[in-house]
Amino acid sequence: MESADVFLGLHDFLERMRQPSAADFVKSIKSFIVSFSNNAPDPERDSALVQDFLAKMEAAFRAHPLWAGCSDEELESAGEGLEKYVMTKLFTRVFASIPDDVKVDEQLSEKMSLIQQFIRPENLDIKPTFQNETSWLLAQKELQKINMYKAPRDKLVCILNCCKVINNLLLNASIASNENPPGADEFLPVLIYVTIKANPPQLHSNLLYIQRYRRQSRLVAEAAYFFTNMLSAESFVSNIDAKSISMEETEFEKNMEFARALLSGLSTDSDSLSNQNDQNVGNSVESKSQSLSSKKERDSSIRSKSSETRSGNRDWQYVKDESSMAKVPSLSDIENRGAIMLLKEDLASLAFREYPYLFAQVGDLTINDVEDLLNNYKQLVFKYVCLSKGLGGTTPSNSQIHAHVDVEFVEKHQDAGVVEPNDESQKQITTTDNSGTDSLVTEENVESKSEQAKGMVLEEEQKEETSQ
């Protein structure tokens, strides 16, 4: 299905739903949402109800005069629009609605946050030819977007984008090294590694949500293949142990303990710094309040004192306030403390594994890296300036920033095939026909360029799928 047809078909569906003859459809949709929301959560039953409702509504579309003479592509777009509207309305009711799912999400996220501190591609038997951690960052970013969307299709697009980036990188690496095209044995380990490094939010609940509420007739072909691989990656991470990542048991436990200590230390330092800042601010406010009260009393009782005495009092007050503010640690103090902590650690290099180009030479860079270098530089400067301001310091100069920061960059592949899922922002438009029947229609707040690109993810031609 062409992307232009997807765009036109979806908006044609919205226009048809405004017609008076669509009143029965609108009433059925609204009635289903209300009755469904009134029931207690039951994932298996809920999934069956949604799948059955979507199937019946799509069958009704095909038989209705509003879609008479329409192509299969237009009817497909109508089904996509229906699924998106219904599931956006029911999202808070069905997503992570069971305490057990929430618990698994937390356990899985905690496990990935620990393992990502020390796992290397070699631990998953990824060949050096296929190792490209810098470019894998793009795949990680796609996976981390999954909680930005509510519709099952949009969440699935995030997974497909991640998998497509990995697949393209592996294919390019095999061509460059004259090796056989990569298969599942090469793809899955990289997906597992990327998933651990990305640690996407509520991964377990997101996968269950797609599995339960994505229209089953559309979860096929390439989409089904990549989604199945993501389910395998989740299962692997859930059961990960020393043996599964080619590591000695003692080394694995040591690394896990180190990761716990590292994350615990970062959390403790953050809380301590926050509490210290709050205390210092409170002391400063109290000091100034006491000083103002004292000044009023002095002004009312000794207005005849000389200007020299008043000047002395002001100097003394300035010194008092300055000593109070001095309690706030400076940016340099925090950096020096962090540097000392790193030097004391046996595995200090682990802290820099997220920045593979920290020690890169000029000759390692290419012209394609400029855009990402600039973007990351801007982000680092913004964060650094905000941190300095938050600590009560002055805005650092350009030379100061360069003295403290090394630029991290991501090598972004232009041919990665990434597609942005459509925006979840929607508005409800209520219209009234001649007979007084209310009609509720959703409109999507997206640009036509991004809308046209969406169809490329889930509806690729069979020939392209076979060639890959």
TrEMBL record:
Bias-annotated ranges (Acidic residues): 458-468
Annotated Basic and acidic residues bias: 294-318
Signal sequence range: none
Residue stretches of biased makeup (Polar residues): 427-442
Pfam families for the chain: DUF5601, VPS9
Annotated keywords: GTP-binding, GTPase activation, Nucleotide-binding
GO (cellular component) term, any one: endocytic vesicle
One GO term (biological process): vesicle-mediated transport
GO molecular-function terms, A-Z: GTP binding; GTPase activator activity; guanyl-nucleotide exchange factor activity; small GTPase binding
Residue spans of biased composition, Low complexity class: 284-293
The keyword GTP-binding appears for this protein: yes
Every VPS9 domain range: 102-246
SUPFAM superfamilies in UniProt: VPS9 domain (SSF109993)
Residue segments, region Disordered: 269-318, 418-468
Top-level taxonomic group: Eukaryota
Protein name per the record: Vacuolar protein sorting-associated protein 9A
Annotated source species: Jatropha curcas (Barbados nut)
